[in-house]
Design goal:
Largest interface: A-B, 58 and 95 residues
Oligomer: heterodimer
Structural class of chain B: alpha+beta
Radius of gyration of chain A: 18 Å
Structural class of chain A: alpha+beta
Number of helices of chain A: 3
Number of strands of chain B: 16
Number of strands of chain A: 4
Strand content of chain B: 15-25%
Helix content of chain A: 10-25%
Shape of chain B: globular
Strand content of chain A: 5-15%
Number of helices of chain B: 15
Shape of chain A: globular
């Protein structure tokens, strides 16, 4: 039976942890979705170009990686044993936004205490649906185009944010 | 000095009456609600005998009311293994009706304790007509109910995307259902699939599911406008409510109109956002409302002219019908006018304990961490969920000597959600209000932190401008 004072019985139970503020210019979009850490990284040289980068959940320290432009041209830095700079930025910003523990847990990565996540995500090139990730990014951006509502929305009473840090 | 009785000033007598235990019938009703919520947790497609009996108990409690018959029929059909949309709506309606009764009992207890006068609801019900996006939303909610929270996978969760997009693109549909579905979907996405040993926010998700089910067949909110009001709006407190893709700034205030007692009203503006825009940055999403934001940041009144208002005390904010007024200290206003103020009735669909947010003024209390002593009575205070968009902190609350806040009920009892405090610092009394940062943070430390991480709204708008319109 659900008791009133419990988390399960609280209509305002906190489900999602707070998202920490971070600089968005380099990596405007990061998410843990579809079994991957995926996101969009702004190109360092061309303001109109972005890279769609992802690291798949895996096991035994092996994680498929993918990085290409939004026009599906593969990133030149992806072929070596190290992550390209876009993937490095993606991991760093994901750790900033969600905390290292949450990202590591989602990816199934085993990071020893005091270790940095990026060093425990070995793996090689693997195809990923860059176009679909890019369209999720555009959907994300489209929220900024929705006009503000001027009515009191009682539904928002169920959403109190995660609270001040 | 004899304590003034009435209208929202919280002294020991009021606090004692409020903390005297739940009104009769409330614990029993919440037990029946829990029965439904547990059934929904495990899915309505395969009800065992025990859960079917729990649902029958809920329907039975409403025997003799308009929702009792349809609820009883819905339970019979569900128990026989058939899950139809109309039966789910009937059960959501039954759950909502019972919570409505709990809401009324609790509000009655609160009004009696505070000596608060309240208007009666005198509107005829609007006919409910399902809209296109509303039907798509109900179809998704039906899939969730069949699977139960414990049977969800990511595919179920993705089903929310299309109805949400359709609702956001349709201004006539109202924003409420879209923000509700989006908020629920984000939580389900983070949790599904749920392992056998993991806890589920059973009550919360049942609340969101039921409200969405009923909201999907409501008339557009424009239909609820009852009158146009002209007078002076004195803001008393500001709350900032948010999830990943929406933020609402909600202003609680008093409306003075010629020849009548001041009325408690609310005005709210809601912006769509991304999860990476949070804290003080959310105010930058609301630059279309410079008068409202200026009034909040500078503690000024607003003159409103023929502003649309609903019968439950909600203003529909139109900047062109407002003008900035004189400076008005919310604490002074609360001391003088709150005892006389007339509180609004609650709209039928909003009769839910979560919607209990009664504005009060507290003075002469002693802060003791998470509960404050008010003339010897111990009142719980919500110190751990202060909006990040405003200046209130646990330390300020601890140093406070007066507080404007909302009385709310969390199932275990009444507690105070602070919106503004007066606090002693360096020998002087300073006021801190939830809307103080509406035109930008005033705390140098926060300004510094913000400039370090840059302006997320500007960065994402630039990206949107470059990438969206290709």
């Amino acid at each position: 039976m659900v008791t009133e004072a419990s988390w399960a019985g609280d209509p305002l139970a906190r489900v999602l942890p707070a998202v920490k503020p971070r600089k968005l210019a380099k990596v405007p979009f990061v998410e843990l979705a579809e079994g991957r850490l995926q996101g969009v990284v702004s190109s360092g040289s061309d303001i109109d170009r972005v890279y769609v980068s992802s690291i798949a959940a895996g096991s035994h320290g092996r994680h498929g990686r993918s990085c290409s432009t939004n026009n599906n041209r593969p990133c030149g830095g992806l072929n070596g044993p190290y992550m390209c700079k876009h993937l490095q930025a993606l991991v760093a910003e994901a750790v900033m936004q969600y905390g290292q523990d949450r990202v590591a847990r989602y990816l199934g990565a085993e990071v020893p205490e005091g270790g940095a996540l990026a060093s425990w995500l070995r793996g090689s090139k693997e195809p990923a649906p860059a176009a679909a990730v890019f369209s999720r990014f555009l959907r994300h951006l489209a929220y900024l185009e929705v006009p503000a509502s001027t009515a009191v929305e009682p539904e928002m009473q169920w959403f109190r944010g995660a609270g001040a840090a | 000095m004899v304590p003034r009785r009435g209208g929202g000033l919280m002294r020991g007598a009021q606090t004692a009456e409020l903390l005297g235990g739940p009104p009769p019938g409330v614990p029993e009703s919440m037990g029946l609600i829990s029965g439904f919520d547990e059934a929904l947790e495990h899915g309505l497609a395969r009800l065992g005998a025990q859960r079917a009996a729990a649902l029958a108990g809920l329907a039975g409690a409403l025997g003799g009311t308009a929702v009792g018959g349809p609820a009883r029929e819905a339970v019979a059909k569900l128990s026989a293994g058939s899950v139809a949309r109309e039966h789910l709506v009937a059960l959501a309606g039954a759950r909502s009706a019972l919570l409505g009764a709990v809401h009324d009992a609790l509000l009655g207890q609160c009004d009696a304790a505070l000596g608060r006068k309240r208007a009666a609801w005198d509107r005829e019900p609007e006919p409910a007509t399902p809209t296109g996006p509303g039907e798509a939303a109900q179809a998704w909610l039906q899939e969730l109910a069949v699977a139960g929270w414990r049977g969800l996978d990511q595919g179920h969760v993705d089903g929310a995307d299309r109805p949400v997009e359709a609702l956001l693109a349709d201004p006539a549909a109202g924003r409420g259902l879209a923000v509700l579905l989006d908020g629920l979907a984000a939580e389900l996405r983070a949790c599904a699939p749920i392992g056998p040993g993991e806890q589920v926010p059973t009550r919360r998700w049942a609340d969101l599911w039921s409200r969405a089910m009923l909201l999907a067949r409501q008339p557009a909110p424009a239909a609820a406008i009852a009158e146009q009001v002209t007078g002076r709006l004195l803001p008393l407190g500001v709350d900032v409510l948010e999830h990943g893709t929406a933020v609402q700034v909600l202003v609680y205030g008093l409306l003075e109109v010629a020849g009548a007692a001041p009325r408690l009203v609310r005005a709210g503006v809601t912006a769509a956002k991304t999860d990476t825009i949070s804290g003080p940055a959310v105010w930058r999403l609301l630059t279309a409302f410079p008068l409202l934001l200026t009034a909040l940041a500078q503690h000024r009144s607003l003159e409103v002219r023929e502003m649309p208002a609903s019968a439950d005390g909600k203003l529909v904010w139109e900047e062109e019908r407002a003008a900035l007024g004189e400076p008005a200290d919310p604490f002074a206003t609360a001391r003088v006018l709150l005892p006389e103020a007339l509180a609004p009735a609650t709209a039928p669909l909003d009769r839910h304990p979560v919607q209990l947010n009664e504005l009060v003024l507290l003075e002469s209390y002693k802060t003791q961490g998470e509960s404050w002593a008010v003339d010897g009575q111990s009142l719980r205070v919500e110190t751990d969920r202060l909006p990040a968009a405003g200046p209130l902190t646990p330390a300020l609350l601890k140093a406070s000597t007066a507080c404007i806040g909302l009385l709310r009920h969390d199932g275990a009892g009444w507690l105070l959600r602070p919106l503004a405090v007066q606090a002693k610092s360096k020998g002087a009394i300073t006021a801190y209000h939830g809307g103080d940062w509406a035109l930008g943070p005033t705390d140098p430390k926060v300004v510094k932190a913000e400039s370090k991480s840059g302006d997320p709204v500007a960065v994402l708008r630039e990206r949107a401008g470059r990438l969206l319109r290709r």
